[in-house]
C-alpha cells in the first residue's frame, strides 16, 4: 500500500518538537496501523471496476426485462383500463344528460305550478271584487230604501203635524168664535 504522507518527515518533525526517536517512530507506526485499518474497512465496502461493470450489466438486463413487461402490460392491462375509463365517461355523460333532463322537468313543473297559483289568486281576487261590488250594491240599495222610508215618514209626520196644526187652529178659531 502507498501512504499519502512522508513518514520520515513526520518522525523528524516530532523529534524537533521534543519527542525521542523511539517515541516518534512508535507514534508514526501507530498512525500507519490506524490508516491501514481504516483503508481495509473502506476497501471492504468498495467494489472493483470489473464487479461494478458486471452489476451494471445485470441492472441493464433487468431494466430490459422490465421494459418488455411494461410493453406487455401496456398492451393488455392499460388498454383494458382505457376501455373501462371510456365506459365510465359514457356513463357519466348519460347521467349528466338525465340530471339535466330532470332539472328541466322540475323547472317546467315549478313554472306550471306557479302559473296555476297566479291564476287561482287572480280568480280569488276577482271573486272578492264581485262580492265586494255586490255588497256595495246591497248597501246602496238599503241606504236608498232607508232614505225613501225616511222621506215617507217625514211626509207622514208633516201631514200629521199640518193636520194637528189645522186641528188646533180650527179648535182655536172655534173657541174664538164662541167667545166673541
TrEMBL record:
Stored InterPro entries: CCDC90-like
Subcellular location, record wording: Mitochondrion membrane
One Gene Ontology CC term in the entry: mitochondrial inner membrane
Any one of the GO BP annotations: positive regulation of mitochondrial calcium ion concentration
Coiled coil (residue ranges): 78-105
UniProt entry keywords in alphabetical sequence: Coiled coil, Membrane, Mitochondrion, Transmembrane, Transmembrane helix
Transmembrane segments: 160-179
Record-given protein name: MCUR1 regulator
Protein's organism: Eolophus roseicapilla
Primary gene name: Mcur1
Amino acid at each position: 500500500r502507498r501512504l499519502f504522507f512522508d513518514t520520515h518527515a513526520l518522525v523528524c518533525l516530532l523529534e524537533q518538537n521534543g519527542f525521542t526517536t523511539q517515541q516518534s517512530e512508535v507514534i508514526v507506526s501507530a498512525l500507519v496501523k490506524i490508516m491501514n485499518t481504516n483503508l481495509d474497512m473502506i476497501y471492504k465496502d468498495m467494489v472493483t471496476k470489473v464487479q461494478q461493470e458486471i452489476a451494471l450489466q445485470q441492472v441493464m438486463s433487468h431494466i430490459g426485462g422490465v421494459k418488455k413487461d411494461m410493453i406487455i402490460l401496456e398492451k393488455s392491462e392499460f388498454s383494458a383500463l382505457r376501455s373501462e375509463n371510456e365506459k365510465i365517461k359514457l356513463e357519466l355523460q348519460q347521467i349528466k344528460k338525465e340530471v339535466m333532463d330532470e332539472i328541466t322537468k322540475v323547472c317546467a313543473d315549478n313554472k306550471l305550478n306557479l302559473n296555476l297559483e297566479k291564476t287561482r289568486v287572480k280568480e280569488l281576487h276577482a271573486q272578492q271584487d264581485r262580492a265586494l261590488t255586490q255588497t256595495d250594491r246591497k248597501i246602496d240599495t238599503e241606504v236608498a230604501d232607508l232614505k225613501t222610508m225616511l222621506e215617507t215618514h217625514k211626509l207622514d209626520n208633516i201631514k200629521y203635524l199640518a193636520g194637528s196644526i189645522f186641528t188646533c187652529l180650527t179648535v182655536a178659531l172655534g173657541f174664538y168664535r164662541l167667545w166673541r
